[in-house]
């Protein structure tokens, strides 16, 4: 199957040039004959787990309410106007992970997760906007989407979720299974289920600069080195003992200005930051750990693949995996880049790996970051 057929007639290049971050796009039958990857029961089971992020949104008697998971009880499936959202389904289900992989014409550093929403008739999350790009793929039943390019995005105050004060729909479409709607960030929308429906949201990450900056300074705090200590051999008698002297500020700020960030610091920080698993992600270690010899023997025969939960990126000689980083030489780099891009390696390539790489693979296997194919 052509990996990029999800964009209908459009090539990924044209999509990125004309629509990405710019304007909405409706693709009828983006995935022809698409069937839900998980049924209602499987989705509810996921929502009941404490390592899965889920939310229940109800709009009973005209009142919006939101409740966070894990879900113990849900309203009756016969009752109208409720929605259950399950985040990160790709981390727990192979088919959901495979679907997300079809969006890899956009880099992994931007791709976030697959969220599945289940709604009963007339269910929705209200008119709102998101801060991220999103592809909304209809998986089951029908949903009516109303969208608007409106600039005014004031929210109703005191609500448990983001609800636009003045939503003025400009366009409206009913999506059937396999249809997909792309929305750029801050595009107002309201999706209402027509009968029971399931919608898959392919979401992207766009870290706020404030959050990036705070995390970067924390990262730098661990690596800066400023030897020496404050000294003032020329100290003069003061009439104002509570005042900080100009000289003290000058000396201290001259020292602090010695802090420098190199491009390598930035790269290492970003790689670690972008591959850090979310707080509720737990890796499943293999049932039995293999000795190094046994691991290499089996992996060289069958190949290896990254866990659905593993985030692996690279830049230059730096390799990043699940919040950790290391620098590699040219020979190891080739293999690790292939693993990161393809998310798996055939046995013959594993067999050609250096001792260092095999040792790392064995450790990642024990940690549940990678498995034998
Ligand atoms: C939904 O799938 O119910 C909501 C998705 C969205 O509007 O962002
Ligand atoms: Co939305």
Automatic annotation (TrEMBL):
InterPro entries: JmjC_dom, NO66-like, ROXA-like_wH
Highest taxon above the source species: Bacteria
MF GO annotations: 2-oxoglutarate-dependent dioxygenase activity; metal ion binding
JmjC domain boundaries: 95-221
A Pfam family it matches: WHD_ROXA
Keywords from the named record: Dioxygenase, Iron, Metal-binding, Oxidoreductase
Cofactor: Fe(2+)
PROSITE patterns membership: JMJC (PS51184)
Entry protein name: Cupin domain-containing protein
Provenance organism: Noviherbaspirillum saxi
């Amino acid at each position: 199957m052509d990996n990029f057929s999800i964009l209908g007639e459009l090539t990924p290049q044209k999509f990125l040039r004309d629509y990405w971050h710019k304007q909405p796009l409706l693709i009828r039958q983006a995935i022809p004959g698409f069937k839900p990857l998980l049924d209602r029961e499987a989705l509810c089971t996921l929502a009941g787990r404490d390592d899965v992020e889920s939310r229940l949104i109800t709009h009973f008697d005209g009142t919006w309410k939101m409740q966070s998971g894990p879900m113990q009880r849900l309203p009756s499936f016969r009752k109208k106007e409720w929605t259950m959202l399950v985040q990160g389904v790709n981390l727990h289900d192979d088919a959901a992970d495979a679907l997300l992989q079809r969006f890899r014409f956009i880099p992994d550093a931007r791709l976030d997760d697959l969220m599945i929403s289940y709604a009963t008739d007339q269910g929705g999350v209200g008119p709102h906007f998101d801060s991220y790009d999103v592809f909304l793929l209809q998986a089951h039943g029908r949903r009516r989407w109303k969208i608007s390019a409106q600039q005014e995005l004031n929210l109703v105050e005191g609500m448990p979720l983001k609800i636009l004060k003045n939503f003025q729909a400009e366009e409206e479409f009913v999506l059937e299974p396999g249809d997909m709607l792309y929305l750029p960030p801050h595009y107002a929308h309201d999706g209402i289920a027509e009968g029971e429906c399931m919608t898959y949201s392919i979401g992207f990450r766009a870290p706020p600069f404030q959050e990036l900056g705070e995390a970067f300074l924390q990262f730098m705090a661990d690596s800066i080195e400023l030897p020496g200590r404050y000294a003032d051999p020329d100290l003069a008698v003061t009439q104002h003992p509570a005042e900080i002297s100009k000289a003290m500020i000058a000396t201290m700020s001259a020292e602090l200005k010695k802090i420098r960030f190199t491009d390598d610091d930035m790269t290492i920080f970003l790689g670690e930051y972008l591959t850090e698993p979310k707080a509720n992600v737990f890796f499943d270690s293999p049932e039995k750990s293999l000795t190094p010899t046994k691991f290499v023997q089996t992996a060289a025969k069958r190949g290896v693949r990254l866990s659905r939960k593993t985030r692996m990126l690279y830049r230059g000689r730096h390799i990043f995996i699940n919040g950790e980083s290391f620098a590699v030489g040219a020979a190891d780099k080739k293999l690790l880049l292939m693993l990161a891009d393809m998310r798996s390696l055939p046995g013959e390539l594993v067999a050609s790996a250096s001792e260092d790489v095999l040792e790392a693979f064995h450790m990642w296997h024990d940690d549940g970051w990678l498995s034998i194919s």
